[in-house]
């Protein structure tokens, strides 16, 4: 079996799948990407380079489409070179989010294209229009979203099969394409991402914290409203009033991953700190930026309460990882979270916008830690039984690729019981 992986930031979602396919004798694997990736055993890398940038002063609604076309062309030309060297894949596993899959079937018409279908934008029921504080959607925004999906629709039409990590994310895809979708999460290595009573973190002058301390954790790739940073920050004065011994540890950068920057060259952290002023005791709030993965895990392992808030958007790996460590997760009652967390069973849910309710829920957990032990156990069990990397997700991924390579049609994943809002 020959498999080509295509992802601009390879390995991305293919960190475990690519070497697992490369391991058996007789399989050949290659990766195509734009950046220099970490080395994975048995996975040689071919890099592509774009030859131009987006046209200056191009219509803003089509700028993203042009950018994806440029990347698609560069990726397609690199694929031609790969074919000329004799590598013709049976299956192409690709993330189409940056336009890289647009012309791959023109180079490899005999290959089966398995696309990672992460999200499909829409004017209602998703991130757009969700938060009135930062979103005043109007005619131009609706038009922009429609054209933002242009390359996505082309990619959906081109794929032989698609893969989504959650049922809710799959539900955002237009109905005609849903019969060609499997729902398989990337997976969590629950053997490594596990409770550790001996874990500790050191915060410079603030000292050492362990699981015996009242540690509240919050994690974003970048601290921004899309992931509820503004709501969490506004809850801190009430959290500190109710929980005077609590220490708040915040992981994340000051850039923007998904939404818009606040303007005037500021970061969302600067904006929220200025808004809250002296209502926050910064001696008990620790912004530690982006940290190595082992340190990230230790932060989760000492967490008494982990807060995860998100717009209706892509579910973060970090929430499942927190659950896998046995952390008590308080999440937003938004569709991506509600697919995983059942309030009072394996975590707690609060209204995304209700900062006082969030503070009250955190205080309740810290006041009665013993009562919450069952929720922590159920949280880990949820990840073990539904999202375990080695025992569930990776075998399902492998079986899907092998099915396509054999020329068979996979069976789409059934929708779960209950409506996906």
Rg on CA atoms, Å: 22 Å
The order of strands across the largest sheet is 3-2-1-4-5-6-7
Q: What is the CATH T-level topology of the largest domain? A: Rossmann fold
Protein structure class: alpha/beta
CATH C-level label of the largest domain? Alpha Beta
End-to-end C-alpha gap: 39 Å
Give me the strand/helix succession.
Answer: EHEEHEHEHHEHEEEEHEHEHEHEHEHHH
Major sheet: 7 strands, parallel
Low-confidence stretches: none
- In the residues, how many domains can be counted? 2
CATH superfamily of the largest domain, by name, is: Glycogen Phosphorylase B
Count of discrete alpha- or pi-helical segments spanning 4 or more residues = 14
Overall mean pLDDT stands at: 94
In total, the number of strands is: 15
Overall shape: it is globular
Which second-level CATH architecture of the largest domain applies? Answer: 3-Layer(aba) Sandwich
Question: Helical percent range?
Answer: 25-40%
Please indicate the percent range of residues in DSSP E strands (runs of 2 or more).
Answer: 15-25%
